[in-house]
TrEMBL record:
Subcellular location: Cell membrane; Membrane
Residues annotated as domain ABC transmembrane type-2: 51-283
Keyword terms, alphabetized: Antibiotic resistance, Cell membrane, Membrane, Transmembrane, Transmembrane helix, Transport
Membrane-crossing segments per the record: 52-77, 89-111, 144-164, 170-194, 201-220, 254-277
Pfam families in the record: ABC2_membrane
Family: Belongs to the ABC-2 integral membrane protein family.
InterPro entries documented for this protein: ABC-2_transporter, ABC2_TM, ABC2_TM_bact-type, ABC_2_transport
Species of the source: Actinomadura algeriensis
Origin organism lineage: Bacteria, Bacillati, Actinomycetota, Actinomycetes, Streptosporangiales
Protein name (record): Transport permease protein
Main location: membrane
Membrane topology, record value: Multi-pass membrane protein
Annotated PANTHER family: DOXORUBICIN RESISTANCE ABC TRANSPORTER PERMEASE PROTEIN DRRC-RELATED, TRANSPORT PERMEASE PROTEIN
Length: 284
C-alpha cells in the first residue's frame, strides 16, 4: 500500500513557507536572498542577449559623438566655463543621462516578464514583489556600469578625455551619477508596473525623459537657455546632479548641487517603490 505525505494545515506551516499544498516543507529565502538570486538571473539574461548589449554600448558613444559635434561651437558663447573643452563639459552629463536609463531598461524587463508569464510564475511563489523590482533595477544598473566603462574607454582613447579633477574626481562623478540615475529611474519602474505595454511605456518615457534631459544644464549652461526654460532647468533635479558631477570631474570637489540632487532623487525612489509594488501586485 502506498502512503502519501499530507501537507500540514495552514496554521501549522512555518512562516515564509509556500501557501499551497505539496510544498509545505520548503521555506522561502529572505528578501535579500531573493533579490540576490533574481539579480543574478536578470544580469545573466542581459549578458546573453548580445544584440541588446551591443546596442546599449553603442548608444552613449553615438550621443557623445553627435552632441560633441553639434554643440562644440558653444564653448565660445558667453557663460560657458573658460578653458573647458565641450567633451569635458558633456561627459558628466552623459554619465547621468545614461544612468537614468537604467530604470527604463528595468521597466522594459518588467513588461517582458509580464508578457512572457515570468511575473505570473513568480507570483505563485512566496517572493516579495519588492525583490523582483529591486533585482530588475540592480540588473539595469549593472548594464549601465558596462555602458559607462565602454563610454569612458572610448572617450579616453578617441577624444583625449583627461578630467582635470583627476581619476578620483571622475570616479566620484560616476558613482554620483549612478546613485541619482538609479534613484530617478524608479519612476520608469513604477510606470512599467502600471502601463503593462512596451510601446506605451516607451512613449511615456520619452515624454518624461525629454524635458529632464534638455530642460537642464546637461548640454548647455543654464544661463545660455531662454529665460523660461532656465526657470524650468533650475527646478529640474537633473541640473543639480549634472552640475555636481561636472564639478567633480573638473575640480575634484562636489558643489552644493550634490546636497540637493541626492536627497531629492532618493526621496523620489522611496515614493516610487510602493507605487511600483502596488502596480506589480495588481497584475492578473
Amino acid at each position: 500500500m502506498t502512503t502519501c505525505a499530507q501537507a500540514p494545515a495552514a496554521r501549522d506551516r512555518p512562516p515564509g513557507s509556500l501557501a499551497f499544498d505539496g510544498t509545505s516543507g520548503w521555506r522561502a529565502p529572505g528578501a535579500a536572498a531573493q533579490t540576490r538570486i533574481l539579480t543574478a538571473r536578470f544580469v545573466k539574461s542581459l549578458l546573453l542577449d548580445r544584440r541588446l548589449l551591443l546596442i546599449g554600448l553603442i548608444e552613449p558613444l553615438m550621443m557623445l559623438t553627435a552632441f560633441g559635434q553639434v554643440f562644440s561651437g558653444i564653448v565660445h558663447a558667453p557663460g560657458f566655463p573658460a578653458g573647458v573643452r565641450y567633451v569635458d563639459f558633456l561627459l558628466p552629463a552623459l554619465f547621468l543621462t545614461t544612468a537614468l536609463q537604467s530604470g527604463l531598461q528595468a521597466g522594459m524587463g518588467l513588461v517582458d516578464d509580464a508578457r512572457e508569464g515570468m511575473s505570473a510564475r513568480l507570483r505563485t511563489m512566496p517572493v516579495w514583489p519588492g525583490s523582483i523590482l529591486v533585482a530588475r533595477s540592480l540588473a539595469g544598473l549593472a548594464r549601465v556600469v558596462l555602458r559607462l566603462l565602454f563610454l569612458l574607454t572610448l572617450a579616453f582613447c578617441v577624444f583625449g578625455y583627461r578630467p582635470a579633477g583627476g581619476p578620483s574626481g571622475m570616479l566620484a562623478a560616476v558613482v554620483l551619477a549612478l546613485v541619482i540615475g538609479w534613484s530617478l529611474g524608479w519612476v520608469f519602474i513604477a510606470l512599467a508596473c502600471w502601463v503593462d505595454n512596451a510601446e506605451t511605456l516607451h512613449a511615456v518615457a520619452g515624454v518624461v525623459m525629454f524635458p529632464l534631459m534638455f530642460a537642464s544644464s546637461a548640454f548647455v549652461p543654464v544661463d545660455g537657455l531662454p529665460s523660461w526654460l532656465g526657470w524650468i532647468a533650475r527646478l529640474n533635479p537633473i541640473t543639480y546632479g549634472v552640475d555636481a558631477a561636472r564639478d567633480l570631474t573638473l575640480t575634484g570637489t562636489a558643489a552644493m548641487g550634490a546636497l540637493v540632487a541626492i536627497p531629492t532623487a532618493l526621496t523620489i525612489a522611496a515614493l516610487a517603490l510602493p507605487v511600483a509594488v502596488k502596480g506589480l501586485g495588481r497584475q492578473g
